[in-house]
Amino acid sequence: MDDAPLPELRADLRLSRSAPDTDGAPMWTLFDPMRGLYFHLHLSGLRIIRLWRQCSTLGELVLRAKAEGAALDDGDVEGLVRFAEANHLVVVQGHEGRQRLASAMEQVRVSTGSWLLHHYLFFRIPLVRPDRHLEGLLPLARLLVSRTAKFLLLFLAMLGCYFIVRQWSDFVGTLVRFLSWEGIFWYALALVIVKSAHELGHALVAKHYGCRVPTMGVAFLVMFPMLYTDATDTWRLEKDHDRLRVAMAGVMTELTIAVLATVCWGLLPDGALRQAAFFLATTSLITSLLVNLSPFMRFDGYHALSDLWGIRNLQPRAFAITRWWLRERLFGFGEPPTEAFTRRRRHLLVVYSVLTWLYRFFLFLGIALLVYHFAFKVLGIILFAVEIFWFILRPIMNEIREVSRRRISLNMRTIITIMSACLILGILFLPWQGRVSLPAVLEADAHVVLFPPESAQLKKMPVSQDEHVSVGQIVYELEQPEINVNLQQARRRIQAIKARLARRAGSADDLAQQGVLRTQMAELEAQISGLESRARALVIRAPMAGRVDMPDVLHEGQWLDSRTRLADLVSQHSLRVNAFVREQDLERIRVGSSARFIPDDGNHDSVDLTVRSIDNVGAERLAYPGLASRYGGPLPVEERRREDQDGLRLEDGIYRVSLVPDSDASVRDWQVYGKVSVEGPAESLAGAIFRHAASVLIRESGF
Question: Which residue of 38, 341, 568, 644 could cross-link 549, Cys pair, CB 3.0 to 4.6 Å?
């Protein structure tokens, strides 16, 4: 290898000093202008690059480097040469070189389908080349970030906060009011304006530090468009603090827009301009705080954290050290860490990696569900499977493959790992779950609501709250003064008619009107009978035996109308329970199985039950609003603006289960929400997951 010819470095490569490494070691940047790529070099790599053009063979390069005091061997130089050839940093010479380049190009060339598979999540379209236009905007940009402008912006920020606090209800009400299709359109327009200013902020600050901004354009994240700025040239900046300013320039621009728009919103009268200011303010705040500042995706927050910690390529290096940390904790291989970080810095990177993995797991899972629901069904299923495999299962499989290549020794860490794995497998595959939990309602089989027969005054309350009454027992005594007055008048008139009939022999007129008097007396007797019937109805009696539940607001002497709820009469010895089971759990419920009702409120006792019947057809409507998903319950109902007269409409796959108490039981309220735990065949957790997945697959397999 000492006599092997040294390939010629390309003449257009640029070498510049860079910010020091995490441990303080000096570093340099090698820039490839053809592809816009940057490569970081330590001192040893710098010495090799500087001596490269002065040597013709590998051996000569090693000797020259050692003569200058570099601690290098043939392997270091050969590795750097191979790295340069693999990244096309050398001049292609001869037939062999052209063949190697053609082979490399063939390897990176992919089919259209493969490209779409790997890039439909994220790809870029450059639109403009702004570099030569940014110089003209720099004087104005520097004026906007002057000391005077910063103090003015701070004052306006405090003023904007004052306006929001003073008009908080108006601010929140406006935000809720514009959550509509029309509001979404205006928010989208505001987002375009804010993001354009955001990317311009990145470009101007990068240009201020002498960096080149080759392109600006639009990027698509899961087909959602967003603007981007190519600020790759900032890698050659020597100070991490300068790169941090470039990374935070977009967020600071958005926050500036939010401050100015908030002040305008607080000062302007109602109208189109005030609404426009509101859209700009809320859009800037939401995108800055929730999206750009997140350090878990490669947005501004990630680059800012990388520069703040002084760690280039933060995520790959953090993931590598975390994989090493996990292998050592699980199997104790005794391998050295991938990088020599301090103990505190290493733990910090491990925590960051774990949080990033969790964030990405739920993000990619959400993206997969989003793609499934918004694409047509066949494409949605394919893309969902690709998402789950490529971003969740594939990294796990790669790590398992990497661990399997190593020799696992039987040490304490390995023993603990094996025991933990066995415990987890046992929890997953051993059948230990034997009960099925169902949402349910316990209610009295007989329940009566008492109302006044007509408007009346409450005269007497013979019973008290929670008192048990028998059939026919008086619960309330009401009175209607008009009835008493009419009774007295009718009875006096009857007495007068009877007196005239008794002396009709001595009076020619009474004798002549005898028939009329008898007719009037019959009418009065019928009137008295009706009044007496109304008076008896005002004495409210219990139509059945049970417990009385009375409102606290009632008192003697109070006037009541016919719509006033007097009391609920609840049967104490006849109960029933209606539970609801999903289709995937239907096979685990059997008629005659033991069950137990557990109330949600904690004020009632549990009740032992037996399954009496299971409906053969899924329930269409739900008569218990407390169980509906629309009101926070567990049962999914169709989203409709108005309820049907006979209940909420359930989604498919919900069956009603009727249960009865094993013994006499009482209930204080006529209806109690809770859960029913039913005895069923034992099932493993993995079996339950598979059964649920199979039911979803069968349900979604129909096209």
Answer: 568
Secondary structure (DSSP) of 649-682: EBPSSEEEEEEEESS----SSSEEEEEEEEEEEE
Q: Cα 620 from chain centroid?
A: 29
| 82-90 long-range Cβ contacts below 8 angstroms, 24+ apart | 84/7, 84/9, 85/7, 87/32, 87/37, 87/39, 88/32, 88/35, 89/9, 89/10, 89/13, 89/30, 89/32, 89/39, 90/7, 90/8, 90/9, 90/10
Using CA of residue 608, residue 614, residue 615, residue 621, what is the dihedral sign?
positive
Query: pTM score, two decimals?
Result: 0.62
The pLDDT, as a whole number, for residue 689 is 79
Q: How is residue 695 written in tokens?
A: 């039911």
Q: Is 653 left (phi over 0), alpha (psi -120 to 50) or beta?
A: left
Q: Which residue has the tokens 């935070």?
A: 248
Task: State the Cα–Cα distance between residues 409 and 415, nearest whole angstrom.
Answer: 10
Residue 100, pLDDT > 80, answer no
- Determine the 3-state secondary structure of 559 from DSSP: strand
Distances, alpha carbon 486 to alpha carbons 158, 490, 493, 557, in Å: 75, 6, 11, 21
Question: What's the rounded Cα separation, in Å, for the pair 561 and 554?
Answer: 12
b/e burial code for range 244-274 (CB count within 10 A of at least 16 → b): bbbbbbbbbbbbbbbbbbbbbbbeeeeeeee
Neighbours of 464 (CB within 10 A): 8
Note whether 184 and 209 are within 8 A (CB).
no
> 407-463 pLDDT, tens per residue?
888 888 899 999 999 999 888 888 877 888 999 998 877 778 888 998 888 888 888
Residue 63 has φ and ψ, to the nearest 5°, of: -65, -45
Residue 319: name the closest of 340, 350, 355 by CA: 350
Measured CA to CA, the distance from residue 27 to residue 46 in angstroms comes to 8
Q: Which residue has the tokens 């958005």?
A: 254
Angle 683-594-600 (CA atoms, 0-180°, nearest 5)? Answer: 90
| C-alpha closest to that of 303 among 237, 222, 358 | 237
Burial of 390 (0-12, 13-18, 19+ CB in 10 A): middle
Nearest CA to 310 out of 27, 68, 58 is that of 27
Dihedral pair phi/psi, residue 646, rounded to 5°:
-105, 25
Residues in the chain: 703
What tens digit of pLDDT does each residue of 129-158 get? 898 888 888 888 888 888 899 899 999 999
Encoded amino acid at 571, one letter: S
Buried b (16+ CB within 10 A) or exposed e, 572-611: bebbbbbbbbbebbbebbeeebebbbbbeeeebeebebeb
* Cα distance between residue 254 and residue 503, in whole Å: 106
Q: What are phi and psi of 468, to 5 degrees?
A: -90, 130
Distance separating alpha carbons of residues 412 and 91, to the nearest angstrom: 54
Concatenated DSSP letters of 366-406: HHHHHHHHHS-HHHHHHHHHHHIIIIIIHHHHHHHHHHHTS
For 455, list phi and psi in degrees, rounded to 5: -65, 130
Contact in structure between 367 and 383 (CB atoms under 8 Å) = no
State both tokens at 330: 């699980």
Residue spans of alpha helices (H) in 388-480:
394-404, 412-429
Tell me the C-alpha distance between 242 and 223, whole Å: 33
How far, in Å, are 11, 42, 84, 472 from residue 80 at the CA level? 17, 12, 6, 102
